[in-house]
Structure formats: C-alpha cells, structure tokens
C-alpha cells in the first residue's frame, strides 16, 4: 500500500493525443498497404486509386433481343418501302448481352422486325420499316467503365456496389490499407475469465470484449492477450511480445492502484512515457507512450473509464493507421433536465438519457459511477462539459453526441418514477407489439411526478399512499404535477417484508423492525415503499431511529432483495416479485395500486397509446401475474384527475 | 426468340411485397431462436429479454484503497479525540475491488488513515479523525446490475457495451434471433466467374457479390450458389436444393428474356408465383413467390435493377426474419438540378449526385442505364418519383435518400465540365492532402459553365477555343456564366488524333478524316474537343457530312480511345494521356489550355482553396505530367474574368 500513484501531469486530452500522434509520425508509424482479393474487400479502404483493367462492357454488346445489322445497310427503309434483310447475310439474331457480329454496328429490336419466313434459320428473310442509326441499341465498349479510368479513389471504403464495379472492370485484387492489429492485455491478479459463479473478490474480465468489439467496428484487427497477474516481469514480457506482433498495444490496468503502477514502470523500461494522467473524467489515469515506434495505451480499469479512454485515444489511433478521419458522431441539441457540475480544468463526459416529450428533446444525466457498465447500456448520448466550465445549468440547451440512433430515441416512451419489475417486461412487450422502445429510470414515485411536471417523461409509475384517506396517488398528482392527468392502473401488487428463506429472525410485523437484532434495509426518500414504511411506523408509534438500517437507502426492490440475499440485511420492505426473483421468503403486508400517471396532454401520443393498449393485453398481463404478487383484474382502468 | 416474356401483372411494389409477407406469415415463416456464446454475440439481436444471472458487483467490494471497518466501530471519532483501530481486529487493509471482510460494512480511504506503527502487518495500529457511515466507499452488491433484472430487452441489437454488461452479469450465452440463410443463384449461359480477360460475349458475374455483401450488412448469412446455365432441369434442381438449406432463395436471371422465362416456370412448378412484374423502374421484371413456405425472389439481371429490387424486396425479408423494422435511410431535402420524367403508374428510382454549393444542396440526376453499375458507385442518393407523377420539374425541392453520409457530401468539391484524366488523379490527391472529396461529372466545357451558372458546381474544367481570337475560355465564361470568375490553369495539354498502333490509315491531318476509308469517332456537342474539330474542319473547308462518324458521339477521351482500341474507329480527336493509357498512337495537333473556372463568390470556399493549393503542389503536378501530354509549368496561374 505504500506506493501511491503519483500522476506525472494532467494534460488536456487533445494535447496528450497530439503528443502521441506527433511522436508516431516521427517514428514513421502509419498506413501500410496490402493486396486482398476483391471478394474479401468489403469494408476495406483503398490504399491507392484503383484503375479499371478492362472496359465494361468489354465488347460491343446488344442491349436488346433483336437483329444485329450494319446501320448503313438499313438506310432508306420506310413504312411504304420496307427493306428486306436475310438472316446470316445482312442480319444476325442476337439476345441481350450478345456481342455484335463482325461488321455490325446496330441492333433492331425484335418488336420492329417482321418475319417473312418461318423460323430464325440462316437464309430466312425479314422486313424492317425504318432505318437505324449507328450504335443504336448497342452497349458500346466502356459504356459503364473504360479500361484505365480511375474507378475508386484512394482512401475509399469499399461498399457492395463498389465490389460489383471492381469485378466488372476485371479487378480481382485490390490494394487496401492493412488493418491495424490491436492487442489488448488485461492485467490484475483479481481478474478472472467470464464465469457464471465467480467467488467473492474475483472480478470478471469483460473490458477486453467491449474494447476489442469497438476495435472491430472501427476497422482494426482485435487480438486478446491472456490475463496477466500483477507481476512486473510477466507484464513486461507480455507487453514486449505484444509490441512485436501488433500495431497498437493496450494494457488495461486492474482497478487497484498497484497494478497501474506496474504498467507505467514497464512502459518506462521498454519505451517512453508521453502522457500519464489527462484532465478528463472519468478516465484520468490514462497512460500514453511509445515502444519500438508503436503506440502503447494504458487504459484505466473501471469499465466506463476504459470505454471512454478507448474512444478518446485508441479510436484516433486506429483511424490514423487506416489513413482516415475519425468519423464524428451525430449530435442533437437537447434541453438539460438537471444541472451537472464538473471541476474547472477537467473535461467531463456525462452519460445522458434522451427523450422527446412534446416538442422538446430532453437530456437527463444518469449515474456517473465509472464502475457502472450498465450506465453505458442505458445511455442514449454523451454530454461533454468543457474544462473551462464548472457545470451546465438546468434547462440549458446542450449538444449531445448520440450513442443510439435518433430515430429510436424519437420512438421511445420515457418512464421515470417508481420501480416495478413489470416495467422491464413492458419494455420487451412494447417493442414487439408496437415497435416503440421503453426507457425507464427509477427515481421513486415523487421523483416521477416531478419529472412529468418538468416535461422529461411521458409516464411515471406511482404508488403513493395518502395517509389521510388511504387512497392512492390522486392527492399526490394534484400536489406535485398540478395539471390534468390520467392515472392508469398497471396492477395491484403485494407489498411485504422480504426476508431470508425460512424467515430466520421471524419478522411478522413492523414492530419487529425495531428489534435490536434486526438489520433493516430501506428505500430512498420519495419512494412509495418508503412512504408505506413511514406510514406504518407512525401508526405503530415507532421512531425511525429505532430501526437499524433506516438510513441505508437502496433504489429498487431488487436491490433490497439482493441485500437480504447477501445476508447484509434481515429484512426490507418490497414487492413479492422481487422476493420471488431472488428465491427469498415474503411476509405480506398490504396490497397497493401501482398506477401509471400520464399528463392529459400526452394522451394522444402514439407511444402512450401503445402503452394503454398493452395494459389491456392478456398476454402481457399474464406475464406480469406470473412474476408473483400481481393482480391484473382491473389493469388498464383509467381515472382522470 | 419466340418466347417473349409476358408479365403476369404490374403491381405496385408495396402491394407485391405485402402479398409475399402475408403468405409468409400464413406459412409460419419468421424469427427463430438460437443460443450463442456472449463472446460471439456482437451485432446479434436478442430473441428474449435477457436477465442478469448474478449481480454486479457480486459481492460487497471496496471502492477505494483503505481500511475496511464496521461503521459503528468508528462512531465518536473526531479531530480532537481520534480513534485508534488495530489492523486485523477492527480494521483490515483492502485494495479497490477487494471484498469486505466479514463483519465490515464500510471503508475508510487510505488518505484519511494515520499510521501509528510502521507497516501494514496484523497488530499495527492506526488512527482515524472522523466516523464513517455504513456502506461508505463500498460498491454494494448489485450497484451496477441486480441478479434477475432484465438487462437487455427482446429485439435489442447487441453492442460492445452490452457485451460487457452481459459478461459482468454472469451471462455466458445469449438467446438471439437466428440469421436468415440467403442463397443467391446466378443463372445464364453467358455468365462467367470474375476474370481479368473475359472473351467477347462472356458476362462477368458480380451481382451475387453485391447482393450478398448487402445481405451480410443487413444481418443475414450469405450463401453463393454456383452459376447455373440456362437449363430448365438444372435450375429446378438447384432451386430445390437451395430451398431445403435456406430461409430465402434468390435467383438472378441472366440479362436475356429467355433465362428469366426458365425461372418463372421453375417457380410455377415448385411453388407458387405471387407477383411477376412490379410497377417500378428499373427492376420491373422482379418475381416473388413461395416454395415450401419460404420466400423465393427472382431478381432481374442488369446490376442496377438487381441492386434496387434487392433493396425493395430482399431487405424487408431479411429484417422480417430478424424481427426488426427495416431501418430508414437518412434523407435530405435538395433542389433538383434537371427535370426528371417518369411514366404514370410507375415508381421511378433516380440516382443522383448531391453537392452543396453555397447554401443550397443540389441533386443532379445521373445516367439511368440499368446496366451501369458505376452509376451506383457515383451516386450520392436516390430520388423516388412516385407512380402518380409524370416527372418532377427542375428547381423543385425534393427529398433524397442518402447513399453516402451527408458529412462526406458536405465536404465534397463538385466539378462539372470537360473531362480530363488528371481530374481523377485530383480526386485522390485532394482526399489525401486536404480531406476533401472530389465529385466530377463529364458534360463538356459548355455544360460545365452552365452548371456553374445554375449553382450546381464549384468548379468547371473548360478548354474552349475562341475561333475569332485564338484565346481560350475568356469569352465563353463571359457568355455562359456571366458573373465574375477565376480561371485557374490546371495544365497545358496536347490534343491530337488517337489512332491504332502504327497509325495504319496514316492519318496526319484533318483532311484525312474526310477520306471514305476512315471511320471517325466524335465527342458530344458542347465538348471543347468537338469545338476544336469544328474549328479545324471550317479552316480546311470540310463539311461535317464528309466525316464518316461525325455524329457518333462519346463523352470522354477514354471512351474515344476505347473505340479506337476496339477497332470500331480509325481515329478520334483527344488528349495524349488517353492514347497513352490505352497504348495507342497519337498524332499531335495542338497544345491547349485546360483551365478550371471558379465563380468568384466561391473563391473562399475551403474545398476550392484546397484545389488551388493542389494546383501548386509539385507532387500532384508531377503525377499529372507523368500521364503524358501535360505541361504543368504554369499550373496554378490565376486569371480573373
């Protein structure tokens, strides 16, 4: 633990990259040429202008079915004085694509030929009523491509139609830019190959699969090195071998500072450190260097950092080797749903969800944890906060780089609010039955209503118990949304205590939660389940301070169940389906109404209509009930508030 | 020749497609599921919602390097009364990612720990100045993904980050939609495998490569059948075998009507014809049918027709089998440069070039020949003329489907005008040296000036001899463009007679062109070379009617050279580089000035500036001179007119 990582510097990332690219230029690193069969050239980039070997067509070809003639033989033919031609002498039958017989320079379509004798044999006579011009209905040599002309310029990415033109022009091999071989070396003693049952402390290695898949998409040849434990000599040997066989070498540090430390010392011994630490977040501890004139990139271990630094540093290297500009991601302008902050001097990359609600495209920042790979699965776009800003205010218009096609985002129903297991199911059904996508974020019932109010979402899942009346949702919608809305019943669902198998602590009432031997796990403020707990504690006259774990807040029913499953908590309040999913026991407390709140002005939105249709779909409702603890008898019931 | 193809019908293409899809639905044809290793799942489509097998993290992990503690043991620590903890008893060293030791529920960062003894051994003591809350600096089980939660919905295309999340969640295999196997059977006795030296009458088979490359891009598994000659039994046997092993079968008819005829009869015998002939152009003779409940598509033989009908009929089949919507191509709005016409009742697909000149995006229709594969290489977009219209007028705003990224189109310098071999070279150099693309169309010098006038191009290559003054270009620019412009010398170039090796007809003067034994090949009206001929014929008092072939018009120097090379012409007027490229002889006539005309208002356009820079680049000029017949001594000279 004594060797704490000291970063050499904290360069702006573009300066760091330019330093690497300049060093590579000086080392003569760059595009190389190889020749591949045209058949295998799809997606490859031409390394030189490609010239046609032969013309297409490569002979004068009939463009129709008919008789080939010499045009001058037909001059003078008219309707009143037709001209007779003899097959095999002045006229020759040809099909489309046939070469013109010697001496012929035009074709008369069969529709314009009167047969005077039976059949097409040599000697048969036919009659024409009009002359033809030279080269009429003939595809002349080179009509499509002329031999020696440049068919594809240098630096052109070969598409399906290009392959056709190349083969038509007799080109069986093409000079293309060699794909860079990119080797990825995962390091870290705690790192293991993907498995379904890792032991505590084992970290599944998946960064290599993510980054090398990206390398494939960019046009490189991915190579995965073996996992190397934190052993200086072993890392050095592996890097040296990788450099010999690759054009770009990536070392992915384990997540602990120690393994990163090995990497930078290996780089110092084998080559030259050009940058260590860049002013970005996430991804600061990136390392750039040169070994034997080839780029070496040390990527940090947390998956979002790995992904971002690969985007910022590996992608430009792959494109540089291919002689191409890095393609810009499409961008959109959107309104920022919540303020984001960022330290001065650091360029911050914020993952956002995008949703079109009404006329506005809204960008909602999502979890910033660099360790959370699922945040990249859920992200629709990337917002860059420049290093000169300390943040961007709520409601600002921002430019967002798209990580998902805008067309999909436009067809997405945005659900923000309380978590319910059936929402995930709804996503799949909605996609299959209506083509719409569902994006759902779990911020609790109250958070959902506030998101509706701000125009960030189409629907919000809510289950808020009104202590005064025992009624669900109505009063809260009036209070937090304050506009006409629909409340549509998704399902009645059963709340209760999620407890380990066999309920070892014998928890049967809210009173039990206050026992000193009971560790409780709670939901966050604003969650309907939290309100339910508070309501019952108040009823029973229990102070929150008496409940051990009252302040331990998790964001979903499943997270609560997972904490119970792990033995970290003895009980948590949640829905039966979460207990059932985790194979835990469940002590019922109450049935409640889980409704979707939809602002009235969004009722006619086609995606909202698709949701309403789904809430009356027996197949969907059957699937919900099979999750356990759901009653769908009245699903789809609409109340207007 | 007796069996002329009679089309059964001429259905609107959407009606024909819907007929096929309905029949396939009834036959139960559609998505099937298979399970693949997650490692191989990139780009595949989930066939069911994918649930996490394990949580990520799957244990409570330290988020920092430090000491793991039980939070309640730290309560009461302050700066004034620090708390001492003993390693191995109340405190345990952990690295980032390590599991919390039993009994611990929080981590204190190493930066906040004062070491009281030397070293990290068990029994060493350390001091803390503040308490920690439970779960502080701990990545709790399920922070990223909770076991059993839906990670990816059904119908989701797996991206690199999704692979990471799947592996993190212990998912080693994924249920995905099976890719449809698409077999392509080329037919036609005249069809041969790609070769560099086909004999006259041999047609190189490349449609299979184009269409199957597209099938790959759409997500299908391409299978290429052997080329089948026009033999009914052989075609029937091949189709029957293909149907047994495929999900979609394509038969590509030879270009003659006969082979198409075989195909429809085979389809009638083995299955059911659903449509034969659709109201589109090109591509009318498409065939749709069903054999053993699987789709059969007969694609016409001309490459542009093949491509278009594959887009319209095969693409929707592949996506239907994958359970996906056909992605819409991005579109742009552009101003139509020239009127296009189309018969009523037929949907016409017009390939267009796009160029941004000034503020306007202009769409210029290109050659409609269905046999011209290079037109698909050159096309930037597709304009659809609906069946209810007879055409679309010049200057109309139209919607164009993009075949090339808009960003590339925006970075394209559009050159329309006289053909010169060095322009092709310029395209490659421009791309490499400045990143700009060059799009060049050959319509002759006068046509180029008119294109500039209409705002369709940035530059026009011109070499127009003023008979009165012997000066080049100036008077014409004033007459046809009528606005201030720059004339920039690309090169002086040598014009002369392109003749076969050894000049067998001994052509040495314009007078020789009028000899009865000489077949001439001309350039089109408006071409500078045509004007040069007319000037000299007039000087010599020769009437055009005396020149055999005066009305035979080709569009480029290379096409003229190709006609001479083929023996179809004895001479043509053209530039030395064309003769040299085709290994022909050349009889010099004159040096002329080939200039680029650039409207003055476009001078500051960055792409135009890149062209001007290139015209003073020794490497480029050297490459031009090596083409033969160019003098670049004054290249880059600018005249303002």
TrEMBL record, chains A, B:
EC number: 2.10.1.1
Domain MoaB/Mog residue range list: 183-320
Keywords attached to this entry: Magnesium, Metal-binding, Molybdenum, Molybdenum cofactor biosynthesis, Transferase
InterPro entries: MoaB/Mog-like_dom_sf, MoaB/Mog_dom, MoCF_biosynth_CS, MoeA-like, MoeA_C_domain_IV, MoeA_C_domain_IV_sf, MoeA_linker/N, MoeA_linker/N_sf
Keyword set includes Magnesium: yes
Pfam families: MoCF_biosynth, MoeA_C, MoeA_N, PBP_like
Known pathway: Cofactor biosynthesis; molybdopterin biosynthesis
Residue ranges the record marks as coiled coil: none
Named cofactor requirement(s): Mg(2+)
Gene3D superfamilies reported for this sequence: MoaB/Mog-like domain, MoeA, C-terminal, domain IV, Molybdopterin biosynthesis moea protein, domain 2, Molybdopterin biosynthesis moea protein, domain 3, Periplasmic binding protein-like II
PROSITE patterns membership: MOCF_BIOSYNTHESIS_2
Top-tier EC class: transferase
The keyword Magnesium appears for this protein: yes
UniProt cross-references to PANTHER family, sorted A to Z: MOLYBDOPTERIN BIOSYNTHESIS PROTEIN, MOLYBDOPTERIN MOLYBDENUMTRANSFERASE
Protein name: Molybdopterin molybdenumtransferase
Organism whose genome encodes this protein: Symbiobacterium terraclitae
